[in-house]
Specification:
2 copies of one chain form a homodimer. With 165 residues, chain A is mainly alpha-helical. In chain A, 64% of the residues lie in helices and 6% in strands. Chain A has helices spanning 13-30, 38-50, 56-63, 67-79, 101-121, 127-147, 153-164, and strands spanning 83-87, 95-99. The first copy, chain A, has a two-stranded antiparallel ribbon with strand order 1-2. The longest helix of chain A has 21 residues, at 101-121. Chains A and B meet through helix 1, helix 2, helix 5 and helix 6 of A and helix 1, helix 2, helix 5 and helix 6 of B. The structure holds a DNA duplex (30 and 30 nucleotides).
Chain lengths: 165, 165
DNA sequence: ATATATCATCTGATCAACAGATGATCTGTA
DNA sequence: TACAGATCATCTGTTGATCAGATGATATAT
């Protein structure tokens, strides 16, 4: 018998995360044909609906997307009538990106399909474990995200805001 | 009061995984200055040491790296004396990639530093939760990886092998 | 007022990823 | 045995995405 060949015993978080995330992208891309730019457009739309970030830059920073890319991502979403660029009343340089009714509808449907895909992807885990994994990943990410305010102006804004209270 | 602003309540696995993985890459890159090609070289070296995959193609498939990229990744690792290309006695087309003593040493040291980085990255979770997260991620990934044999010739080989027993 | 910073956008340059071709070798088959 | 088709590692050329930098409009600070 040679040395151990079994993968599961070799701890390699980077590899494991990459495998899961790659699979997520693949699986999700299949059910997001109706959202422009696939998973990218989905992420943007999701963020627009669930958070309200002040500017495109904030949106971009939140998703770690380049600001110049964000421009044409929103172009496409707007072209499909999923979001609108409204002038920001408080700052005429900025645009408020707001989801249309149709955008919210499309997102809701997409989210259901994505959730289904995630169930399949995580089918190696029991239901409880899946829930735990979702929760832990979410919390780890949230912590990382808050820890690094520079990466997301919105967080910094929030911190200043919290401080004021 | 506006709609909810809190991130942690919005389930978005793709976003969360991306945040954690991105942070992993950043953090790990810092402590892998001595490994050529940074985290990529590290992953290859790690795979070479811990698994024994027959060919460069298998190595590439395992890590989802293009075969043409694998060529120069190994070029660099070999140039640094971390691995060797040995002719495969059974198949003269193929090369066995084997770690040198120095390679194993460098890897071991790197793995310790990477583990330390992971502790920092996951510091938003308790020790138990960190362990759970590592375990669940690993198992989810392993399951995905085995589920898709085409992605990794080695797995297919293993399946045939298992069938024979 | 003037200077500096920020927002969204556009342009151009760069660079990594991939498809395709190549030479060597293996496997199967007639 | 010879031949066809597949596979291994490598090389080359192209392409497509990413990002730095510039721009015009606007905000903020001195």
């Amino acid at each position: 018998m040679a040395q151990r060949t079994d993968l599961s015993t070799t701890r390699n978080l980077g590899w494991a995360l990459a495998v899961v995330l790659r699979r997520w992208h693949e699986g999700v891309e299949d059910v997001l044909k109706d959202v422009p730019q696939g998973s990218r457009g989905y992420q943007v739309l999701s963020t627009v609906v669930h958070e309200q970030l002040p500017t495109q830059v904030a949106l971009a920073a939140h998703l770690s997307i380049d600001r110049t890319v964000m421009t044409y991502l929103i172009d496409e979403l707007e072209g499909d009538g999923l979001v609108e660029r409204r002038p920001d009343p408080a700052d005429r340089r900025a645009r408020r990106i707001v989801a249309t009714a149709r955008g919210r509808k499309v997102l809701a449907a997409a989210e259901r399909r994505v959730a289904a895909v995630e169930d399949v992807i995580l089918s190696g885990l029991s239901a409880d474990e899946q829930a735990a994994f979702q929760d832990l990943t979410q919390r780890a990410a949230t912590h990382i995200h808050h820890e690094d305010p520079n990466a997301d102006p919105c967080t910094a804004v929030r911190q200043v805001f919290d401080q004021a209270n």
